[in-house]
Write a structure and sequence with these properties.
This is Peptidase M23. This protein is mostly beta strands. The protein has 1 helix and 27 strands. The mean pLDDT is 95.
Amino acid sequence: MAVMLPEALLARYKRFSLYNSPYPAHDEGCAIDLYPGTLRDGRTTAAPSPVSGTVRETRAVRAPSKPYAPEHDYLILLECDGPTELEGLIARILHVDPTVEAGQHVEQGASLGTLVRAGFFAPWVDNHLHVGVRRPDQNLHRASGSLPLEVGVDVRPLAWDGTGTVVATGETYAVLDAPTHPAPGETFAGVRADNGGVLDGGLPHYDGGGVHGATQDGIVSLNGERLGVADGRTITWDDIVVTANGEAITGLSLFCARDADFGAKLICPDRSFDLGERVRVRIRPTDSR
């Protein structure tokens, strides 16, 4: 049973990803990360609820130990009564320090609390709500076990030749001005794979990713360079490396976005880029010369 997330739910957020995570909860697209902020406002702390319903429970949970983050996170369990597609199901929401409590009814879009950056976050990851959906008879506290998710929007594929100019930087990433979103605020878009689908995931710094809008099995490539093999919409990356101006970087962060700040996000904690620098991104097998 796959749960459809309707456009009215997704449109409250600037970006979403089913696959851009190293954690098993996202395997096969069984969880979604919802980003309220843009690429240039990635540390926003607003936490609008994706659903309406009654809070069943809130609790602190242990997170992986990281020197830059607290070792605890928070879990919010919501009994959904809206949108219609989620009625009667339980939404599991992480990364929010809750201001809501058990028994309280929450409207869709209302604040759940403040977004937090616990040890689940790599340093380049922007603030977001992690959301999984389960039936009431399932174990609601295990990290894995959520139902597969489908997105009820058509994601527009954007051709990208691998080039762009740096328009924003952080300690561990750089954002390019390409590809350009053709209709900010009106539709979600993402980087187009050669087969016409939209790529989703951490390439290749997480084990795999996904492709929206092209669920056939087979080889997935970008600009003629093989990325991996798809089983349905889920991709296992090949042993590849991403380069920027000829030097290896950690990878590309791939997602679906609807804001004007959309552009390729380079993950590069060991390599710095200057604002205005022209960059050419390429993908090659790790063992190539």
